[in-house]
């Protein structure tokens, strides 16, 4: 009878035949398991044909389409042309590889369709349990607050908002920055991610108020230069309020000296924040955790479970020591979100009291499943394993006269280049990187270090093995030799930065 009523309804989006939907759903799930199981047989990445691009420029359909046909389109025209970060040969950017347990959890979360803005529901308690775990990871107090966000870019922005409100007073929420009695100054290193400067922009403080501190020989923030900058700003009548340290820099994976920075921040009464997008979770590895010494003394930490934590995208997190200041920065009580002590409107404070989003997906579930299924010990081993592979890559580079290491290998990022004549070196290495990507063998990226273009291998994926490192090196040597020979024979330069 219920089925008949459902078939008669013209407004529902549920299927008229649940058995057919179930069969198709199992087929789709099996195809994704097949994809992950056999991913090594695929290229890491491949260029997108023009006809595939054209497929996604068609107008929106007005009539329904068959789900099986849509799935086939996905298999043929979407799945083969993703960035490839699930592939063990993907080393271009600091992207996690995901995991099958997290994929299943994401399916469960989508089926549940919970809005984690708040209310009295167990999905919110799942997020709070992960927060409890995170407090323990970093030895933060029980009153520390935390929140799942899209990624570290948003997490950094939230930390900056909280720190600036605490420095200027919560009245700026109503009166605006123009009513502030003092002008703020913030500090980060030349190796910091660009989202730190973007956060200054979005927070209304302006990028000109961010001091870019030079790096030392280890690509870490220069402490003496930082202290000089703080002193100069104080002498100019400014109010230093925020230091954004880096744990795992975007270019080379360096970790700023957190204990020393904590000493400076404590002495100067400045908020110390850590952009630990991928590096912060090294705290789960007994082997790597000592490199984060001092992180427990910070005021806030931003990081991504979807990088080294291998949780499917997206699952960023912000942890704030001063939970009250965090709450006061965002809480906006309104009548339609009235909190009660009983019923569905209970459970205050709600997650929406700690960030800008009222509508929030159940990111916590795939993270909770990943940690529960694999355990922190296993996840720590994965991180240490990628660092061991980075050291192996370093050894391979140092053993090859045709290759050159361009930066210390602190964690899991290796920057190197193919040796060739200086006028052509940057161009040839850029072409090697693109040729590697187009080959489907490996997908590194590039960066510029002291004016020299580096091939950058970020080893994040739990699937990557020594054979993948060997394939990268062998292909680099082969492609480099061909491109160098071609450049020598042509005797011309296509004009790029001189190495």
Give the end-to-end Cα distance, rounded to a whole number of Å: 76 Å
Number of helices: 15
Number of domains: 2
What is the total tally of β strands?
Answer: 12
- Could you name the ranges where pLDDT drops below 50 across 5 or more consecutive residues? 492-499
Under CATH at level 1, the class of the largest domain stands as Alpha Beta
Helix content: 40-55%
Q: So, CATH architecture of the largest domain?
A: 3-Layer(aba) Sandwich
The largest sheet is: 7 strands, mixed
Helix-strand sequence: HHHHEHHEHHEHEHEHEEEHHEEHEEH
Rg, rounded, reads: 25 Å
Which structural class do the helices and strands define?
Answer: alpha/beta
CATH superfamily of the largest domain: Type I PLP-dependent aspartate aminotransferase-like (Major domain)
Share in β-strands: 5-15%
Question: Strand arrangement, largest sheet?
Answer: 2-8-7-6-5-3-4
Determine the mean pLDDT.
94
| Shape type | globular
Q: What is the CATH fold-level name of the largest domain?
A: Aspartate Aminotransferase, domain 2
Describe the structure.
- With 499 residues, the chain is α/β, with parallel strands linked by helices.
- It has two domains: 18-45 and 82-98 and 376-499, Alpha-Beta Complex (Aspartate Aminotransferase, domain 1); 115-361, Aspartate Aminotransferase, domain 2, CATH 3.40.640.10.
- The chain is built from 15 helices and twelve strands.
- The chain has helices at residues 2-8, 18-37, 50-55, 67-77, 100-112, 122-138, 152-168, 172-175, 194-202, 223-235, 258-268, 323-330, 363-398, 422-439, 466-490, and strands spanning 90-91, 145-149, 184-189, 210-213, 239-246, 271-275, 300-304, 316-320, 403-405, 413-418, 443-449, 452-458.
- The strands form two sheets. The protein has a seven-stranded mixed β-sheet with strand order 2-8-7-6-5-3-4, with helices on both faces. The chain has a five-stranded mixed β-sheet with strand order 1-11-12-10-9.
- It is globular.
């Amino acid at each position: 009878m219920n089925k008949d009523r459902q078939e008669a309804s013209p407004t529902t989006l549920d299927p008229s035949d649940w058995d057919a939907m179930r069969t198709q759903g199992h087929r789709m799930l099996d195809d994704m398991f097949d994809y992950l199981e056999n991913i090594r047989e695929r290229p890491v990445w491949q260029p997108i044909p023009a006809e595939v691009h054209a497929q996604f420029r068609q107008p929106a359909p007005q009539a329904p389409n068959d789900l099986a046909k849509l799935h086939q389109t996905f298999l043929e025209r979407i799945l083969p042309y993703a960035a490839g970060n699930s592939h063990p040969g993907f080393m271009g950017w600091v992207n996690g590889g995901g995991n099958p347990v997290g994929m299943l959890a994401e399916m469960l979360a989508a089926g549940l369709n919970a809005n984690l803005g708040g209310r009295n529901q167990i999905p919110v308690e799942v997020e709070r349990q992960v927060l409890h775990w995170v407090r323990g990871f970093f030895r933060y107090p029980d009153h520390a607050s935390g929140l799942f966000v899209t990624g570290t870019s948003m997490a950094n922005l939230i930390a900056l908002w909280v720190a600036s409100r605490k420095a200027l007073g919560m009245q700026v929420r109503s009166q605006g920055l123009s009513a502030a009695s003092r002008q703020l100054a913030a500090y980060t290193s030349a190796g910091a991610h660009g989202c730190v400067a973007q956060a200054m922009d979005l927070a209304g403080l302006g990028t000109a108020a961010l001091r870019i501190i030079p790096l030392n020989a280890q690509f870490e923030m220069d402490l003496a230069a930082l202290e000089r900058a703080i002193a100069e700003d104080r002498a100019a009548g400014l109010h230093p309020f925020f230091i954004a340290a880096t744990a795992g820099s975007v270019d080379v994976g360096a970790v700023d000296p957190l204990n020393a920075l904590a000493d400076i921040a404590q002495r100067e009464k400045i908020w110390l924040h850590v952009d630990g997008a991928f590096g912060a979770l090294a705290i789960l590895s007994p082997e790597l955790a000592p490199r984060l010494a001092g992180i427990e003394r910070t005021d806030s930490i931003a990081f991504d479970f979807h990088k080294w934590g291998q949780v499917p995208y997206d699952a960023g997190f912000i942890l704030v020591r001063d939970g009250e200041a965090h709450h006061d920065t965002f809480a906006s009580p309104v009548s339609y979100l009235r909190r009660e002590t009983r019923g569905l409107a209970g459970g205050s404070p709600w997650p929406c009291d700690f960030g800008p989003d009222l509508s929030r997906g159940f990111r916590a579930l795939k993270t909770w499943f990943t940690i529960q299924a694999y355990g922190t010990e296993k996840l720590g081993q994965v991180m240490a394993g990628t660092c061991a592979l980075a050291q192996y890559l370093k050894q391979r580079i140092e053993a090859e006269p045709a290759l050159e290491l361009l930066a210390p290998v602190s964690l899991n990022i290796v920057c190197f280049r193919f040796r060739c004549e200086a006028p052509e070196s940057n161009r040839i290495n850029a072409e090697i990187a693109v040729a590697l990507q187009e080959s489907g063998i490996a997908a590194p990226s590039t960066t510029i270090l002291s004016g020299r273009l580096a091939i950058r291998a970020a080893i994040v994926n739990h699937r990557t093995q020594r054979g993948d490192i060997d394939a990268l090196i062998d292909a680099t040597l082969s492609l480099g030799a061909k491109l160098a020979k071609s450049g020598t024979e042509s005797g011309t330069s296509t004009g790029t930065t001189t190495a």
